[in-house]
Amino acid sequence: MTQIVDALAALAQETRLKAYRLLVEAGPEGLPAGRIGEALQLPPATLSFHLAHLSRAGLVKSRQEGRFVLYSADFPTMNQLVGYLTENCCRGSSCAPTAKGVRNEALPRARRRA
Amino acid sequence: MTQIVDALAALAQETRLKAYRLLVEAGPEGLPAGRIGEALQLPPATLSFHLAHLSRAGLVKSRQEGRFVLYSADFPTMNQLVGYLTENCCRGSSCAPTAKGVRNEALPRARRRA
DNA sequence: GCGTCATTTCCATTATTCTGGAAATATGGA
DNA sequence: TCCATATTTCCAGAATAATGGAAATGACGC
């Protein structure tokens, strides 16, 4: 649960959410830190602070490449997060209100989206 | 995006996440505030603060019933949140790294969970 | 080794959030 | 009306997070 709270906190900040989204867009290759700071117009210290935050939460990985540090989204962690929310905060696959322990499959005549 | 950040921030706190989970468990009927405070061992002011936070973020609704205020999870909001994360932070339905704009359906021989 | 560029660490400041006691407000019953 | 109970608001103190300048570290080429 601490992990989940940490991941949520990491994303619950506009700058970090934007940075994370950039990294998602960039795919597994990732981006050099500097390019993120450039896109987001952040002074280096601030950028580093936020990237470290995302990193602590396990949402991004980093690797050195030449003189650059490449950051990339850690998809499995996001997968876990979405999984947790779906499992524990939605009672089933689409956040429809269901009876205790009952999955959407068992919902009585509830319209389900594709 | 502000809405998303607000929802994330609301859940990014252990007490509130616990409270929210209780409400999810309780289903659409919801729970009186006092019962949540009891379950979580919170002084009234603290409880009220956190419930108000969840409420501002749109994650819970409240209604007066007799002398009680019943709180309940707002499932559509959580649905939106999960939807946003899946759409914008996962590149497809299961957070698998995919090429830009490509959905999981198009992933080359990627193992998919049921 | 030296200069350059990329990134991080250090540090102080400011801003925001969390906490909970005490008082206020609301509701229903006697 | 008065009392008991439920919840919120008010307030202040404590804790945590965000910001960014300046200096330190690291990596590369010469």
Provide the descriptors you would attach to this structure in a database record.
homodimer, 114 residues, alpha+beta, three-stranded antiparallel β-sheet, 3 strands, 12% strand, DNA-binding
Note the topology:
The structure is a homodimer of 114-residue chains.
Chain A: H1 2-11, H2 14-26, E1 31-32, H3 33-40, H4 44-56, E2 60-65, E3 68-73, H5 75-89
Helix pairs in contact in A: 1-4, 2-4, 3-4
Chain A binds a DNA duplex (30 and 30 nucleotides) through residues 9, 13, 15, 32-34, 37, 42-53, 64, 66-69.
Describe this structure in words.
Two copies of one chain form a homodimer. With 114 residues, chain A is of the alpha+beta class. Chain A has five helices and three strands. Chain A has helices spanning 2-11, 14-26, 33-40, 44-56, 75-89, and strands at 31-32, 60-65, 68-73. Chain A has a three-stranded antiparallel sheet. In chain A, strand 2 (60-65) and strand 3 form a beta hairpin. In chain A, helix 1 (2-11) packs antiparallel against helix 4 (44-56), helix 2 (14-26) packs across helix 4 and helix 3 packs across helix 4. Chain A is elongated. The relative contact order of chain A is 0.14. Residues 96-114 of chain A have low confidence and may be disordered. The A-B interface holds A 1-2, 4-5, 8-9, 11-14, 17, 20-21, 24-25, 27-28, 73, 75-76, 78-79, 81-82, 85-86, 88-91, 94-100 and B 1-2, 4-5, 8-9, 11-14, 17, 20-21, 24-25, 27-28, 73, 75-76, 78-79, 81-82, 85-86, 88-91, 94-100.
